[in-house]
Amino acid sequence: MSSSILLVGSGKMGQAMLGGWVDTFVTPSDVVVVDPNVENLAVAKALGCIGHQSPVDIDGSFQPEVIVLAVKPQMMVDVLPTFQTLAANGALIISIAAGTGIAQFETAFGATASIIRAMPNTPAAVRHGMIVCCQNGHASSAQLEICDKLMTAIGTVAWIDDEKLMDAVTGLSGSGPAYVFHMIEAMAAAGVRAGLPEDLAETLAEVTVAGAGKLAIASDEPASKLRENVTSPNGTTAAGLAVLMAEDGLGPLIEKTVAAATKRSKELG
Ligand SMILES: NC(=O)C1=CN([C@@H]2O[C@H](COP(=O)(O)OP(=O)(O)OC[C@H]3O[C@@H](n4cnc5c(N)ncnc54)[C@H](O)[C@@H]3O)[C@@H](O)[C@H]2O)C=CC1
Ligand SMILES: O=C(O)[C@@H]1CCC=N1
């Protein structure tokens, strides 16, 4: 890829995206990474990217085509002004920050700046992320294509028109891996309580969740049908599901979980 990328923030999500990009079509030396955290910056440098602790250290001739903002939402107010000059050549701005609305970036970079708000998730680190993107209408078709290519390198991409949906996206797929990891933790702990050795219980929980996810994606059947396929009449699964699908079971709990995360995303905005 000939595009030059400026990645602002090389933390958990920044590193996850960077790994996918350089594994696929992005030349590491085309990426400049800014992060004051020396350890996180070292991860980017180890991949072959150019790293700086501050934007003032960036070579004056560097003109990024894409600026990816991967810092905490609470930091945006302080961080954005320091990148205004680097964005002045019409760079595409992509923010992955939860809650932070496109309007905040238009305020910082100009009302006609090309802004994309994207919500990835950490499975991007193994190129199985879910990334939902939403744009402000000023990005050119070439810029939309660059964003789509960058995000496709780290997972499955969906575009939405209504920015208001980004909070629910964040509550479902952005935060979702944590819910699934907790499910793995809970299943493994339950296996141990049922008498399994810890290592075996962890493997069973991880492989079962990963396998069910793969089957759900590969199959044309809805998840409800795949669930029924596991469930023999009066068998073990029916006994387990009677607990999980009870009135106060997983459904209402997940509904409350996603609603709480969605609400928090709105608050961060
Ligand atoms: N962790 C996740 O699963 C997801 C996170 N996000 C979003 O990604 C963003 C980053 O989150 P994480 O990677 O989890 O956080 P993190 O704390 O791991 O990474 C943030 C990085 O920003 C760096 N940073 C702080 N001030 C900076 C500055 N002035 N200039 C450049 N870098 C600076 C920090 O040193 C750190 O390395 C957040 O806005 C979050 O909402 C979005 C989707 C998923
Ligand atoms: O917890 C957070 O706020 C971020 C956004 C989505 C996942 N992690």
From TrEMBL:
Root EC class: oxidoreductase
Subcellular location: Cytoplasm
MF GO annotations: pyrroline-5-carboxylate reductase activity
EC number of this enzyme: 1.5.1.2
Classification via Pfam families: F420_oxidored, P5CR_dimer
Pathway(s) annotated for this protein in UniProt: Amino-acid biosynthesis; L-proline biosynthesis; L-proline from L-glutamate 5-semialdehyde: step 1/1
Ranges for domain Pyrroline-5-carboxylate reductase catalytic N-terminal: 5-99
TM stretches of this protein: none
NCBIfam families hit by this protein: proC
Protein family per UniProt: Belongs to the pyrroline-5-carboxylate reductase family.
Biological role stated in the UniProt entry: Catalyzes the reduction of 1-pyrroline-5-carboxylate (PCA) to L-proline.
Protein name as it appears in the record: Pyrroline-5-carboxylate reductase
Biological source species: Sneathiella marina
